[in-house]
Write a structure and sequence with these properties.
Jelly Rolls; single chain; five-stranded antiparallel sheet
Length: 132
């Protein structure tokens, strides 16, 4: 059973299909099994001050974690190096996680940059049950 997403109504918002909770930003597994999770985030970096050298080597981590345990084995993760010239970029994470019935998965963005980030509309988060 596939859960598809509609477009967010405004920037910074995800709109998610059945099983996805808009308030908490979580996907709760209806039954135990292996799920394929995919998230694609379109991110804008708004620099407060254009200190170019300060942005060198900035890393952005995007994670999909089970039960908010991101330090655990139960996570998918990607790390992206932000070049100082990037103001708009796309970062994706995809993979398979096992969830017990009633467990949830959610997307986390770990921003080591000094500048604030905005998640743009068109970003999405989906879950598909592979099998039990």
């Amino acid at each position: 059973s596939s859960h598809s997403l509609s477009q967010p109504e405004k920037e910074g918002m995800f709109h998610r299909g059945p099983g996805l909770n808009l308030t908490s930003g979580q996907y709760t597994a209806p039954i135990a099994g292996y799920y394929t999770f995919t998230t694609t985030l379109h991110i804008v970096r708004r620099e407060r001050q254009r200190k170019r050298q300060a942005c060198q080597g900035t890393r952005l981590r995007v994670l999909i974690c089970v039960q908010s345990h991101c330090q655990h084995n139960s996570k998918l993760e990607t790390v992206s190096r932000l070049e100082s010239s990037d103001d708009f970029f796309t970062i994706s994470v995809t993979g398979v996680l096992y969830l017990q019935a009633g467990q949830y998965a959610s997307v986390f963005v770990d921003n080591t940059a000094s500048s604030p980030l905005t998640v743009r509309s068109g970003s999405d988060f989906s879950a598909v049950l592979l099998g039990v």
